[in-house]
Amino acid sequence: MIGGSHYLNAYILPQILAGFLGKYPNVEINLKEASFAELAERLRKQELDVTFHCSPEFIQDFPRYPAFRDTVLLAVPVRMDPLADQSVALSCEQVLAGEHLKEDCPCVSLSEFCEIPFILLSKGNNLYERSVRMFEEAGFEPKTKLKLSQLVTAYHLAAAGIGATFVSDLLIQASSRELNYYKIDSDLVTRQFYALLPKRKYVSVATRRFISHFGDGSFHVGFCV
């Protein structure tokens, strides 16, 4: 059984699973969708064959394989953007083109957005923990409009103009004129996700093949001890 959050199951795994099942059509896949906290507990109880996580503290406890990396961006509704007239915002098209990954891409301080409302993820989500630390770095308490459990929902509510939110660059897949995107000046914006296995001696052939499949696609995989 593979466990993933809605973000992972909807935006990361489809490409991987399609390629994997094309190579191994007889393998049966069971996909469990839950919060990071629930998936972590299920992994500890050995109720999952593999899940994904990026928390440095959590991943140390399990056999792990680098799976993929994403970059956290701040998505700000255009109508409430305090930097809209300063030509530092990234458009959806620029993010899709990978402009935010270039060394010369301008970073901005999160403190520039201290007066606007935020949509944040709830406690237990890795992005919640990172956002708390980024607000501490910026020296202000956010004006929290909503707290949600799902990253995708926060993204769509931000696009509706309710507040700014943190999003993964891999989540952005279609053009949108409602949001401006910013690369925040913080080391916390880069997340390395790992495929994690439970602590047990036997790893099924199907699981080994699934892990190895990452190395055949667009995401690099190598074993970490």
Fold and architecture overview:
This protein has helices at 6-11, 13-23, 36-44, 56-59, 92-96, 126-138, 151-159, 205-214, and strands spanning 2-4, 31-33, 51-53, 64-77, 107-108, 117-121, 143-148, 165-168, 179-184, 190-196. It starts with a strand and ends in an 11-residue tail after the last helix. The protein is of the alpha/beta class and 225 residues long. The protein folds into 2 domains: 2-68 and 192-214, D-Maltodextrin-Binding Protein, domain 2 (3-Layer(aba) Sandwich), CATH 3.40.190; 69-190, D-Maltodextrin-Binding Protein, domain 2 (3-Layer(aba) Sandwich).
Could you write a compact summary of the structure shown?
This protein is an alpha/beta fold.
Secondary structure topology:
Elements: E1 2-4, H1 6-11, H2 13-23, E2 31-33, H3 36-44, E3 51-53, H4 56-59, E4 64-77, H5 92-96, E5 107-108, E6 117-121, H6 126-138, E7 143-148, H7 151-159, E8 165-168, E9 179-184, E10 190-196, H8 205-214
Parallel strand pairs: 1-2, 5-9, 6-7
Antiparallel strand pairs: 3-10, 4-8, 4-9, 4-10
> In whole angstroms, how far apart are the ends?
23 Å
Taken together, the total number of domains comes to 2
Q: Report the CATH topology name of the largest domain.
A: D-Maltodextrin-Binding Protein, domain 2
Beta strand %: 15-25%
Relevant CATH superfamily of the largest domain: Periplasmic binding protein-like II
Helix-strand string: EHHEHEHEHEEHEHEEEH
What is the number of E strands?
Answer: 10
Helix count from the secondary structure assignment: 8
Fraction in helix: 25-40%
